[in-house]
Amino acid sequence: MTGKGMVLSRMGKEQEAEEVLQTALQFNPNPVRTYYELGLLYEKRGDFVQANTEYKKGIEKFKQGRK
What we know:
It is a single chain. The chain is an all-alpha fold and about 70 residues long. The protein contains four helices and no strands. Helix 1 (about 1-10) packs parallel to helix 3 and helix 3 runs antiparallel to helix 4 (about 50-65).
């Protein structure tokens, strides 16, 4: 699902991408890549606070040994 969200984001379908990425986190809350992709999406929208929050979540999961 993370891959699908990535593709949707790059196609400019940001709302769909966000929904897919959020759903991906419901199934597996640990993938660092999903948090990174959400961060990129929010950054692209200009929501730097939310982007930073997602990046920090990803860093914490990485420190815990998650991938």
